[in-house]
Design goal:
- This protein is of the alpha/beta class and 209 residues long.
- It has seven helices and eight strands, in the order E-H-E-E-H-E-H-E-H-E-H-H-E-H-E.
- 32% of the residues are buried.
C-alpha cells in the first residue's frame, strides 16, 4: 500500500512484449491498476554492473516472479546491457515524453551511473534547447551496492558518486536547469556524513537501501 517508484530497466519487466521489448499497452494497464505508482524511473546503468546487463537463472524463477516480470517459468531471463526502446539521448527524451503521456502525467526520471562526462553535457543541452526533459535524475555511484557485483566492475567501471554527481549537476547549473530538476543521489549514502555531503553537492533526496 505504500507509494512506489516504478523502475523500468532494459528487461522492461511488467511492461514487456513476449520478445522482451517495451509494451505501451501493458505499461498503461499497470499504471491504471496500481495507483500506488507515483513516478517512473528509467534505469539506464546501475553502479553495481554498468554496461553488463544481468541474468536471472531459470532455477530462481518462481511462478510469482514470472507473473510480476511477465516472463516464462523454466527459462533463463536476461536483462540486456542496453535499452531497445531508445538508442541515444534524443530518442531517450522522446521515450520519457511517451511514458509521461501513457501514465497520465506522472513524473518520469532516469537513473544512471556515469562513465564519461558527455552524458551530463548532452542531456543538459538537449533539455535546454527543447521542451522535452526528465523530471528527476538519480546518479548512482560506481561503488556498487550489492555483493553480487563483479569486483572488477564495482571498483573500476563508472565514476564514484562524488565525482559523478558533481559533474552532472554542474552541467545543469551551467544551463540554469539545476533548480528545475529533482536530483537524487545513490550509492552507499546511508551514513549521515555521506548523506550530508550528497545534499551539499546538490541532491534533493538520497536513496537508502
Amino acid at each position: 500500500g505504500a507509494d512506489v517508484i516504478w523502475q523500468i530497466g532494459t528487461g522492461y519487466f511488467g511492461c514487456r512484449t513476449t520478445d522482451g521489448r517495451f509494451d505501451p499497452k501493458r505499461f498503461a494497464e499497470v499504471i491504471a491498476a496500481v495507483p500506488e505508482i507515483k513516478a517512473i524511473e528509467i534505469k539506464l546503468i546501475q553502479g553495481a554492473k554498468p554496461g553488463k546487463g544481468g541474468l536471472l537463472p531459470a532455477a530462481k524463477i518462481t511462478a510469482e516472479i514470472a507473473e510480476a516480470r511477465g516472463i516464462p517459468v523454466g527459462q533463463d531471463c536476461a536483462s540486456p546491457p542496453r535499452h531497445s526502446a531508445f538508442s541515444d539521448i534524443d530518442s531517450m527524451l522522446d521515450f520519457v515524453e511517451k511514458l509521461s503521456e501513457l501514465s497520465g502525467g506522472l513524473p518520469v526520471g532516469i537513473k544512471s551511473a556515469v562513465g564519461e562526462t558527455n552524458f551530463g553535457i548532452d542531456l543538459a543541452r538537449q533539455m535546454a534547447d527543447s521542451d522535452r526533459g526528465v523530471d528527476f535524475i538519480t546518479i548512482d555511484g560506481g561503488e556498487g551496492g550489492t555483493g553480487a557485483a563483479p569486483l572488477v566492475f564495482s571498483e573500476h567501471v563508472a565514476l564514484p558518486f562524488k565525482l559523478a554527481f558533481s559533474r552532472v549537476y554542474r552541467e545543469f547549473a551551467n544551463v540554469e536547469l539545476a533548480d528545475q530538476v529533482v536530483f537524487i543521489g545513490a550509492g552507499k549514502l546511508g551514513f549521515p556524513g555521506d548523506a550530508l555531503l550528497a545534499f551539499a553537492l546538490g541532491c534533493d533526496m538520497i536513496n537508502v537501501g
